Every structure is written in C-alpha cells, then in structure tokens.
Here is the input.
Amino acid sequence: MSIIPQPLTQFPWRVLGLLLAIAMFGTLVLYSAAGGSIFPWATNQAVRFCVFSAMALVLSRIPLEIFARFAFPAYAGVLIALFLVELIGGVAGGSQRWINLGFMQLQPSEFMKPIIVLAVARFYARLPVGEIRSWNAIWPALVLIGLPWALVLVQPDLGTATMILAGGVTVMFLAGLPLRLFIGSGLTLACIVPVAFSFLHDYQQKRVLIFMDPESDPLGAGYHISQSKIAIGSGGIWGKGFLQGSQSHLDYLPEGHTDFVFATMAEEWGMAGGLLLIGAFMLLFRWGLRVAMRTSDRFARLVAAGLTTTIFFYVAINLMMVMGLAPVVGIPLPFMSYGGSSMLTVMLCVGIIMAIDRSNSRASNPGNWG
Amino acid sequence: MKFPSPKRQIITEAAQSFTFTRRTMVLGAIQGGIGALLAARMAWISIAENEKYTLLSESNRVNLTLIPPRRGWIIDRNGRPLANNRTDFRVDLIPQRVVDADATVKHLAQLLSLESDEVDRIREELDKSAGFRPVQVADKLTYDQYAAVSVRLPDLPGVAPSQGFSRHYPAGSTVGHLLGYVGAATAEEYKERKNPLLITPGFKVGKDGLERAFDEHLTGKPGAKRVEVTARGKIVRELTTRPDTPGHSIKLTIDAGLQEYAGRRLATQSGSVVVIDCTNGDVLAMASMPSFDPNSFSDGISQLEWAMLSQDDHVPLRNKTLQGLYPPGSTVKPMVALALLEAGIGPQETVGCAGALRVGNTLFHCHKRRGHGAVNMRTAIAQSCDIYFYQMAQRIGMDRIAAMARRCGMGQRFDLPFPSQSYGTVPDPAWKLKKYDQKWQVYDTVNATIGQGYMLINPLQMAVMAARLATGKQLMPNFLHGAKRPSPSSVGASEEHLVIIRDAMSAVVNGGGTGGAARMAIPDVLIAGKTGTAQVRRITMAERAGGVRRDASLAFKLRDHALFQGFAPFDNPRYAVGCIIEHGGHMIRNEDAPMIASDTLSYLFDPKKAMEKLETLEKGWGGTPTERQARQMGAFRLARAIEKGEVPPPAADNASNAAEAGNSATPPPPAADEAGDVPPPPGSNVADAP
Here is the structure.
C-alpha cells in the first residue's frame, strides 16, 4: 500500500487538476479580454470556479441512489419552471428564458441539460431488460425529451433545445435501442430538415443562411462569424501574444468574453493554445467515458456517458460555431466563457460523474471500507 | 413479455452491458473524430489562411486618413504670392455620422458664436449633402475655439475638428475673377472621379478661373496618417504619418501690384482693366470689378453674401474681362483708319463734316452737332469725327475693315486657361447673310465703322487690339510666365502707317483730342489712346429734336458704356491697356475710362506716385474695395433683417432668389444684362458717339 492515506488517493486529483488548468487558462483569457484587468470578468470567473468546484466535490460524496431517486422529481420541477418561464418569464433579448427570483435570474433550460440525461437514464434503468426492443421502451423516453425540447424551442433557444434533444437521444442510443431506429430517424430527419427550416424564426433562418456563407453579409448578421474567423486566423501558429490581440481589444470581435471567448484566446495564443485546449477537453471526455465503461450499474453508466456527452456538446457546438462550421446558436464554451449558468451546469455534470467514479472504486475495493 | 424468464433476463443483461460498452466506444470514437475535425479546422484557419486573416485583421485595426495636400502657390511675375496657404483650425461635419443634426448645429453655433446666416448655410448644406461629403462649419478658428470643440467630441458625433491649411488671396477681391476660388468637391465630381481625397475634410478643388484651369498642377499628393481605431471609430493611437507633398506653384505674367492697383482704381464702377506687355503679349493685369472676395468664397459663402452679390446691378459675379461683351464704339476708329491707309487712302485726304450725313433714308449724326468742318485722318481720330469714317468706310467697303479688325484681335478666341470666354463678333456681309439671311446694307458699314451695330468686343480683346496697333504684331495674350510661344506674325501694316496711327492716337490725349483726361503726369511718357462711348439704347428722332438726354438723368442700365484703349509711351510702346466702364456714361471724370486706364499705366512707370493719387481718391470713394464691400454687406444684412421682420412678401421673394442662386455653383450667365448690351437694330436709329 502507498503511504498516502486512503481518502487522499480517493480524491479525484487528476480530473480536478485538469479542470483547474482549463479554468485558469480561461481566467487568463478573460483578464486579457478586459484589456489587462482582473475586473470585471476574471475575478468573478475565478470565484465562481472555486464555489462550483466545492459544489462538485460535495456532489461527489452523495450516494448514487439519491440521484436515482430524485431524477424524476427534479425533472418534473424543471419542467414546471419551463412552463412558468413561458407564462411569466421576463422578456430579455426577444426571447423568454429567465425567471426573475429577485436576487438572481433563473434559467431553467440550463438545468434541463443534465436533468434530461438523469431522467432518461432513470427510465431505462427501471425498464425491464427484456422490454428494450419493444414500443414501451421508446415512447416514454420520447415524451420525456419532447416536452422540454418543445418548451425550450418556443422560447426560442435553438442551441439549448438541440442540446436537450442530443443529450436524451444519446442516452437512448446507449441504452441499447435497436440501431435501425437511429439510422431510420436520421434519414427521416435529413428529409424533414428543409421543411423544418421554413418553421424557424426569421433571425434563426438568417443565422443558418449566414452560417452557410458568412462573407455574404460581413457587416450585418455575418459579422460575428467573420470577425471570429479573422481573430483565429490572424493568430497563426503561436498567436499575437498575451494582451496583444487587436480584434478583441479594439472591439471588433463581438461577445469576445462570452460565446466567442475561444476566438479571443486563439488570437493571442494561436493554434498552439487552441490545440492544447481541445486536447484538454478530450482528456476530460475520455475520463468521463472511462468512468461509464467501468460502471456496472445501468443507471450510473448511462448517466456518466450521457453527462460526458452533454459537456462534449457544449464544447463541440461552441467551437464549430466559432470556427464557422455551425450557425451562431449561443452555446458558451465551458470554463472559458464568462457566465455563471453554464459553469454551474457543467460542474453539476462533473460532480455527478465524480460521484459515480467514487462509487465504482468503493465497489471494486469493498475491503477498504469494511 | 409480461413474465420474462429469469434465464433470459440474465443473458439479456449481459448482452445489454456488452452493447453499452460497444456503443460507448463508438461514442468515444465520434467524439474523438469531431475533436480531430476541430483541430484540423483550427489548423486550416490559422496556418493555411493565416495570411488572408492577418491582412483582414490589420485592415480592421488600422485606419488610413488622408492629409489633404497643400495647394501650390500662385505667384506673380516677381515671385509675390497671389494665392498662398494659411495654417488654420477648422471644424467640419460628416453628415453620415451626425446623430442629431439640429442639436449638433445648435451646440456648435453656440460654441463658435456663428452668425445666423452661417447657421442657415450649414443647415442647407447638410440637407443637400450626399452623406459622405463633409460640410464646413467654420474655419480660421482660434486655438481656443478649436480646443473647445475638440474636448466635447464625445457628445458631438460627426463633428470633425482639424488643423489644416486654407487658401488665402492677399489681394482679396481684386484677383477674384482672375484666379477664381477653391471649394469642396461636389458630389458629382466625387461620383465621377471616385478619388477618396475629394471627400477628405479640408480638401478643396479649383472652382473657377486659373484655380480651376490649373487644378491638377496645383494639387499635390496627399499625405497619410495611419491610426489604430476601435470598431466604434475611436482613435487609440497614431502609428505612422507620411507628410503631404505640396502641389506645384504657378508663376503668372501678372504683376501683383498692378493687378491690385487696377482693381482698386476701378473705383465704385462696374468695369474692367486689362494691361498687356507690348514686347510679348504677357498679361500684366486683368481686373474685373466689383468682384466677389475669393477668400470668403473659398470658405463656403453664406446665403446672404451670395444674395447680395447676385442682386447687385454691378454684376460682381461676372468676369467682365472675358465674359462681358460690349459694342467697342469709337475705340475701333484707329483700327479702321489703318484699314483705310492699307486701302490706299492718304492720311491728308479730308472730308467735310457738317454734323450729319444721309445714308439711304437715314440721317447719321456726328457726336458734334455743329460738325467738325474739314477733317483729315489725324483730326478725325483725335476729335473722333464720325462723318469722316462714315464716308471713308463706304469707299473701301466692309470686307477690308473686317479683315483688319480680325487681324487686330477682334472676334478672336484666344487659347486661355479660363473656363469660359465670350469672343464677340466682327460683322461682314458673309456673316450677316449666314446669321440673319439678310443682305449687307450700307448703313451696316456705317454702324460698324464707329463700333456700333453688330460689333462686339470684350475688354481683353480691346487691350490686345491696342497692343497690336502699338506694335504692328499679332501679339497673343498669355498668362504663364516664361511660356514659349512662336514669334507673332505681322498685323500686315507698314511701319509708316503705324506711325501715322500712333501719332493720331497721341493727339487724342495730348493734342487736344477727346481723351485729354488720360494725360499722364509722368514726365517724358506720353500716352496714346482712343476713347469710346457705346450706346445701349436707341435715341429717337423725337428725343434728338428735343435734345438728347444726359446720361445722369437716365437709369443705370440705360447709360452709355465708357471705353478707352491705348498704350504708352506713344512713340515706343511698352504697355497697352484696355478699359471698359459699364454704363459709366462719362459722368465722373476721375472714375471714367480714360483716367482709369492712364493711372493704371502710370503705376508701371512710377508706382509711388500712382499709389499716392489712388489713396487720395479712395478717401472720396469710401475706402478700399474690401472696406466698401464689408460696409455693403452690413447694410444688406440690416436691410434684409428689417425686410424679414416687417414686410413678409418681399422677404419670401428674396428667399426664393437666394435659394436659386445658392443652387448654382458657378456665377450665373449674364443673360439679362447681355440683352441690355445688344446694339440697337440698324437702319432705324441714328448712331451718335464721340
């Protein structure tokens, strides 16, 4: 045995170190985005990271059964909150997303991202194994996903709706539903997309069209993507240097500290910084999927893989958007973008995965816990 | 399904676990794949497209501002500046960026204490502006005013204070028509040339006169200032500055002192003086007064000033030296006499003048009702006897006279660097047939002989005629100092004939002739010349019977033009002069053409003495043209204010006039006035000129 005491080796050092590295990098970028100042963003972000890390560690101590038990009640609660948003939610930026609680703005759709994974996983965990290939295995999951998806879509928040759908469908896929269902609906979707396109809001349609050809309107709606690509491209391999980014410092890059923080980073740190960050996120996802594969409990492994994928969607959609591979949908980059809601959600995911990891190691070394 | 066997469940449980592991690996692979895709995309943008995006990023960051080039100087023959540049602080408005035009203009008017007519001009120009063209608010500001605007810039979007150069004409209005003026380029010019320099605040192009003709030569190369700007256009810092290259200067044949003298010497009259160097045709002075002040024109003229200038019956907006056409009157007589000599008429042949001559059905009078008695050529010119010329001209016919007139420069269009030029008419039978489809009549010859009828001349042509009579060479007027030109061909008259003409012209001034007023106070310099009176109205038989009305009793527009052409010294001509006083009517001796022409020439021989005389005279006229114009402006402003306050209908009328005038960039063509200059129809009238 090692000389290091058991609780310390049990502590998830590696993943916490990884997250700390990403968050510190993010804080550094925010420091630069503010023109070389720790105000207003860098300090806030650092404090939030510490608070939410503590929260994640507390979550990791909670027994899995609690998550399983509260999956459906939590789902119901957030769904009600989504209804409330529709009814009484304040108007912000043309779309209703917040409930004003007086002391803070609550954005329930943000919580739906991890909770949809919990709820769908809970459903499949309780489903008798033999029924996995029956109709009964499909429609309740579709209802679970469809309700919040529709509510978020009418807000309208295309990005979050997509993530809720993707998170739920990923769990369905992992639960073992027949593969032909996914292939079939994938093909159907390809046919429906053009029809669905016509139902999108004007500004959403515009975003999609401009994503196809951002240079067509470089000063108008394509401005975000154009400026973001200019920032990334002008950074080159090694970047312009810390605090030297002209695109972000001279305000050419819009949302340089929130959704487009990656462009701010890439301008100053270049491709080297970008690849390092992508690599770090890949390590995080590898950790999450490995936790899932080590787990034998059905609920736990679906949750671990599903939440990992949720974080993955954040990263992938944001980076694709920033690099001109996806339309601008307003998905932040975890740990890098300034903002509390997204960090809270991602830390919730991380905390739950850590809890699963912890129960695994406890299960594999039962003797230690005699 | 309802009761699954435990055995089957165990198998399925294991199978499901296996499926989960496999699908998680697929998921991992997809995630890895997307990660690789993102990395590749990143590499593509930042390596393969690095150059393109670096360029775009630089063009975002760096803003290139043009520094308007200083305009080349215009200098006189001795190197004295006629037009130069003055450092000044100025404020412009960029209409595109102005948010609240009304409030901004109001704020600026208060900061810079602008006159209300200036505010009106700014408002009007803002309305008409195409958005990108800057509108000048004010220039020649003090540093304090400039600073006052500069510190308030954050509250005044679209306001652009700058430090630059403005055009300055030291001689003021006396060079107005000669040099023209400069101004901001019009929207049409920008659309045509697409040169960004044209819309740079403070950049001016030549609008008229020599400024316009030599615009390209005078315009230098702009400098550039590279500044780092934010997306909102705020300047962060200056990067590099390349200074401008001033335009080339132009050296004119004009003598700055003489030009100013001539302009001032024209007194309160509406007239022009042209002085030509007899050795080579260089134009030494070309003044047309009254004139606009090119200094105030170049700053953007106010509506009020424009209204005043366009309503003035002395037509300050017209360049009379080139665009004014007048019947030359008796000033053509020496030229006609030269044609007579050429045709073989002896200088001593006499004609009896009884005061009138019947030609066909009409009685043509001499200006001296009692007649001159027997006159030879010298007396005929000196006393300006009309009967002599009526008779003699009939003997040789119009064609020979017209040919001589053309050789003397009448009706000739000169190659001059001015945008417009009216070149008059030399009528002859062929011309009349073509123009009116009528046969030439004897009375046409008679009219033309004394410079009436169809004959028209501009003041420059008159000076050219004087120079050609003085030298016998077909001198061409020229404005560029040291310009190469072919040696002039001969007028076609023998030196012997020229001496006769010069002697006769000297007699006009020095031999008891009609031009005694032109006698020069310079010892040993005798001026030769010829007076002229050009009638602009018909004199009816009834009026003649009751006595021809004196000019003083007539309205300004009906008075005769007074003319004088001549040269000095008479025996060895050095300088030639032409002078026309519009509707002068020979009423005031020291403001009449002969004395103005003579004094102007005397400046070339004794500038000090000439200046002394001018300064004494100016006291009687109410000061220099600049002082008089300022006073006129004040009176006009007051009159306008009273009018606006008390009598609304005339105010509306004036406003419409002003708007019309403000719309045209160049002085309006002298349409109405030209009609007044049209000679009376031949045949029905009786010409009468001294």
